Amino acid sequence: MGAAFGALMLSFLIALFLFSNASSRKRPVFFLSAAAVTLGAVEGFMITHFHAQAVLHLKVTNAYTALINFVLLFAPIPVQMILLLRIVSAYQERWLILVLLLPVLIFIARIFNMLVAIIQIATRPWNFVADWNHLPFSKIEWILQLIFNVCVWIKIINLCLRRISSPIGSAPENEEPQSSG
Transmembrane stretches, by residue range (predicted)? Predict the structure, then answer.
């Protein structure tokens, strides 16, 4: 599973560079996309190595498990930053603080939760696989990620509905038409 996933991510990375030009590679969306795909490829190869070590040596260190979990937990962050970046580019400046307040607070809470989880995984000698289902970190992450995604999609749908409801060629709500003089 990990090798196939890593190979798929490498092909995505190659396609990302093949079908982009020099100007698109300078944009933050391209950088975040490349980071997300690279993290996915690294994650796939780390999981493959983890399984090989577990089969061949029957021993995997807590530090390596913590490293894999670090990559697994932080992989969605560049993708969600792309969503936030697209929202920032679509909304007017006066609405940005209100639009971004909840997603940014959730983002900070998720990063804090991830750091606590990684520290716990790296420092506590436990049976990680058996105890993972009883630890709150993954459940907190799933709930925060769900709230983040719902919040972002509500903002995107709201933006789309406002654009659909305004006639073509007219200025959006609360915006003065530009003068041609």
Answer: 6-22, 29-52, 64-88, 95-122, 142-161
